[in-house]
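Example (one chain per record):
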Amino acid sequence: MIAEDSKGISIEIMGKQHQFSCSAEQAEDLNQAANSLAVMCADIKKQKGAVNSERALLVASINLSYSLLIANNKLKHSQHQQNALISTLKSALYQTEQ
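Predicted structure:
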């Protein structure tokens, strides 16, 4: 749940309201992120049973950090491949010009 005011937005996560400062352009993305986090925490609590909210948030944070790490590693690998391809193409163009 999201509520906008002049100071930012208020988001409910696991039954508690949290205030965040952000621009109007960021509000919808932040709301989507908060909803995703809320779903993830609810799933963790279902899977783990009597886990408390703090533990569910910690597990969700670790899962999100791991996902971000994997995505960044894939991006770096892709960029490295693109740079290698660009170098190969430049070399081929240079050889054809001579």
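Caption: The two ends are 64 Å apart (CA to CA).
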